[in-house]
Amino acid sequence: MKALVYAAPCEVVYRDEPDPRPGAGDVLIRVDAVGICGSDMHAYHGRDPRRVPPLVLGHELAGEILEGPGRGKLVTVNPIIACGHCDYCVQGRDNLCANRTMIGMQRPGGFAERVITAERAVIELPDGMDARTGALTEPAATALHAIDVAARTLARPLPECAVLVIGGGAIGLLAALLLRSYGVRRVWLAETNPLRRDAARRAVAVDAFDPHARGGPAENGVDLVLDAVGAAPTRQAALAAVKPGGVVVHVGLADWASEIDMRKLTLAEIALVGTYTYTTADLRAAARALHDGAFGDLAWVEERPLAEGARAFDDLHRGVSGAAKILLRP
Fold first, then answer.
1. What gap in Å lies between CA 3 and CA 214, rounded to an integer?
2. pLDDT tens digits, residue range 240-280?
3. Do 243 and 148 lie in a common domain?
4. Cα–Cα distance measured from residue 218 to residue 6, given in angstroms and rounded to the nearest whole number
5. Is the pLDDT of residue 102 over 90?
6. 107 and 39 in a common domain
7. How many CA atoms does the CB half-sphere of 31 hold within 13 Å?
8. Taking 80 as the threshold, does the pLDDT of residue 214 lie above it?
9. Are both 225 and 307 inside the same structural domain?
10. Average pLDDT for the chain
């Protein structure tokens, strides 16, 4: 089969790979659409020691089951393959499974014509959903999970809050769209790339601004900040923007460590919460929300052939694509 293989930092190669062979408890899926995630870009830049080349990346996918239970059904997958029996799995927090593995990390991923995953990781898509929409389930679930965590932490109901989203990639844009659908009226989106700012303004009614220029909320001006970037400057900006008693939800991991304003965090009683991916329940809820139109018409999503995947990675690397999400079609 053909696959796009991460061969070395800043190098992905479209080439022949062995056909995957499912084992007991597995399903074989024909990939119809697969998205390029920010974590795929981290690997591409050589910044993720968990993803070791040569490796087929890609974990945001939708496709048809070719072999295994549910044959012929259009599905997406939970790329995190949990053990099902540790304390976290029993609690329904399978994203924190102590024994988890992940496609596109320890297992070959979805930048290929076919992929194997565990039967228990399959998420059946709603009737009538297409693969293009289904492939957005994973990033949509990440946004949904982060907002749900925020809603449980805030002192006031979410629709009453002013919210700053940092980062106009897929997670940030999907979060802004979902916040709007939840009734949040005051939403700002910080994004340095002018192409993405323009795309965000077209996709959702938010104040998209350049954080390097003037604009956006005032210092101590928002109840909630969603940091979908996770770099040293965005962590500092998040702490500066949040009100006393507010909440900062940390989603992105561009930088693994950095200093933050611990004095404000303490004296202003800020809640700083980390969120990691989603649960299986979040994925199912996100698929339904996508199908019901909670994230809008998704016209901002760009599609390219898998064979042109190297160009897509390079365009994202150079910042010349305004698309918050590029889907590759095998």
1. 44
2. 999 999 999 999 988 888 999 999 999 999 999 999 999 99
3. yes
4. 42
5. yes
6. yes
7. 33
8. no
9. no
10. 96
- Check: CB of residue 182 under 8 Å from CB of residue 256: no
Domain count, the chain: 2
Which pLDDT score, from 0 to 100, does residue 205 have? 82
Interatomic CA distance for residues 293 and 275, integer angstroms? 24
d(CA 35, CA 290): 15
User: Residue 209 belongs to a domain with what CATH number?
Assistant: 3.40.50.720
CA distance 281 to 191: 30
Residue 133 contacts residue 290 (beta carbons within 8 Å): yes
Q: What is the pTM of this model?
A: 0.96
What's residue 215's pLDDT?
85
Asked whether residue 148 is assigned to any structural domain, the reply reads yes
Question: First CA to last CA across the chain, in angstroms?
Answer: 10
Cα–Cα distances (Å) from 303 to 34, 114, 168, 268, 299, in that order, read 9, 18, 18, 45, 11
For residues 33 and 148, state if they share a domain.
Answer: no
pLDDT tens digits for range 235-251: 999 999 999 999 999 99
Q: Are residues 307 and 265 in the same domain?
A: no
pLDDT beyond 80 at 327: yes
Residues 125 and 201 grouped into a single domain = no
Q: How far apart are CA 115 and CA 109, in angstroms?
A: 6
DSSP code string of 18-59: PPP---TTEEEEEEEEEEPPHHHHHHHTT--TTS-SSEE---
